[in-house]
């Protein structure tokens, strides 16, 4: 028997496609892909808003309040994909009553509550407070009562109070920058901490997640600004648009460099998992990783924006290039999340076989639910724009 085993052992080493029985089904699906994508948009939108208040980038002033409301709309939806995936959303409050400091996923509840209640809502309230008080004096009906409630029945519009509002906004924004980093960086931290998975286990994973979040947030605000402004029959501020595209271009270069560095580091290490990763990249993830994420979602937008910066481009063509580039970036970032979440589960623990992820159309874990969760923030944003219009400043009027 020992002789037979010795003769068969070299053959067993060449066997591919081995999957353990408990690895037939992937544990995380499309909903867990939507979750880091949405939280990334929150962090990116807030970082863009901070450029105005902290770094005094006046060209981006038209998008400041728009960025805050966008972050608020998406942060409201951020926990819903996880709650839908877990199946018992009513149990989510237990993480506050019985906190587990050793669980990074459980601590998300406290990070989320801090960011939403202590940072985002406070900054929006202080920034809008003076305008809301003046709106209440001229409005009637339901809008008047909503603004009264939002202002917490405040009536002080003195110069001293308004100066305090401005100082409070700046302080909260400074506090909010590391909070936004923590909100999305911890998602990469969760994946990077899974040492048994060679696709996730990387010290660069939190940093890559963070910069890709900033990329997606800037691209989203560029799209929203270019859509909302013409709908209001207003002219697009080209200085603002150019500055948005410039920041998008610079952050994309950093993001691309970090992802390339991570890839080169994996090749240099050449651990035992390098073969299965190479098979994964050249096989099941070739289209989503190489074609969509790298080529369509990164290189083409980079080249398009670079061409606008290098050559004199007519205004309308420039707008079209910016718009299409921002759309492609969104597709690329979502595909990045897909490749990390789903792609990291496609190879077996034996590093010999690859699995298949079959996404359903209906059901709680289906495509239709995910599309609904991606559209819900825009519905909330439309409501917020009507209640707190980011382009109207009563004090200036």
Characterization of this structure:
By secondary structure, this protein is an all-alpha fold. It has one domain (about 40-350, about 370-385). Helix content is about 70%, strand content about 0%. The chain contains 14 helices and no strands. The protein has helices at about 1-15, 30-55, 65-75, 80-85, 95, 105-140, 140-150, 160-190, 205-230, 240-270, 275-280, 285-310, 315-340, 365-385. The longest helix is centred in the N-terminal third of the chain and has 35 residues, at about 105-140. The radius of gyration is 24 Å and the shape is globular.
Keywords:
397 residues, mainly alpha, 0% strand
Bulk shape: globular
Overall mean pLDDT score? 83
Question: Could you tell me the number of beta strands?
Answer: 0
What fraction of the residues are assigned to beta strands by DSSP? under 5%
Task: Quickly count the domains.
Answer: 1
Class by alpha and beta content: mainly alpha
Layout of secondary structure:
Blueprint: H1 2-13, H2 30-53, H3 64-77, H4 80-86, H5 94-97, H6 104-138, H7 142-150, H8 159-192, H9 205-231, H10 238-269, H11 274-282, H12 286-310, H13 315-341, H14 367-387
Summed up:
Helices cover 71% and strands 0% of the residues. The chain is mainly alpha-helical and 397 residues long. The chain has one domain (38-351, 369-387).
């Amino acid at each position: 028997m020992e002789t037979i085993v010795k003769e068969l052992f070299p053959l067993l080493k060449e066997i591919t496609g081995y999957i353990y029985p408990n690895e037939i089904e992937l544990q995380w699906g499309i909903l867990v892909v939507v979750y880091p994508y949405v939280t990334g948009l929150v962090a990116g939108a807030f970082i863009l808003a901070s450029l105005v208040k902290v770094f005094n980038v006046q060209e981006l002033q038209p998008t400041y309040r728009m960025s805050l409301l966008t972050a608020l709309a998406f942060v409201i939806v951020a926990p819903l994909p996880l709650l839908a995936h877990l199946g018992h959303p009513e149990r989510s409050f237990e993480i506050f009553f019985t906190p587990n400091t050793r669980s990074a996923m459980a601590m998300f509840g406290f990070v989320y509550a801090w960011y939403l209640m202590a940072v985002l809502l406070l900054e929006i309230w202080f920034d809008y407070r003076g305008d809301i008080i003046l709106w209440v004096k001229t409005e009637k009906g339901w809008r008047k009562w909503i603004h009264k409630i939002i202002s917490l029945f405040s009536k002080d519009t003195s110069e001293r109070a308004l100066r305090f509002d401005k100082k409070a906004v700046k302080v909260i924004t400074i506090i909010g920058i590391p909070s936004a980093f923590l909100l999305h960086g911890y998602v990469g931290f969760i994946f990077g901490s899974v040492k048994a998975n060679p696709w996730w286990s990387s010290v660069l994973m939190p940093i890559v997640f963070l910069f890709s979040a900033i990329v997606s947030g800037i691209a989203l605000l560029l799209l929203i600004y270019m859509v909302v402004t013409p709908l209001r029959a207003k002219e697009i501020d080209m200085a603002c648009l150019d500055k948005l595209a410039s920041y998008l271009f610079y952050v994309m270069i950093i993001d691309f460099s970090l992802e390339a560095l991570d890839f080169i580091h994996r090749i240099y290490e050449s651990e035992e998992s390098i073969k299965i990763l190479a098979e994964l990249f050249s096989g099941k993830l070739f289209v989503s990783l190489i074609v969509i994420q790298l080529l369509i979602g990164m290189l083409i937008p980079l080249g398009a924006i670079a061409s606008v910066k290098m050559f004199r481009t007519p205004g309308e063509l420039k707008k079209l290039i910016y718009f299409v580039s921002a759309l492609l970036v969104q597709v690329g970032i979502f595909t990045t999340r897909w490749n990390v979440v789903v792609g990291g589960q496609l190879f077996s623990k034996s590093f010999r076989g690859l699995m298949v992820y079959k996404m359903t159309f209906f059901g709680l874990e289906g495509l239709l639910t995910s599309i609904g969760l991606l559209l819900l923030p825009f519905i909330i944003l439309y409501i917020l724009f009507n209640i707190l219009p980011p382009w109207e400043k009563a004090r200036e009027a």
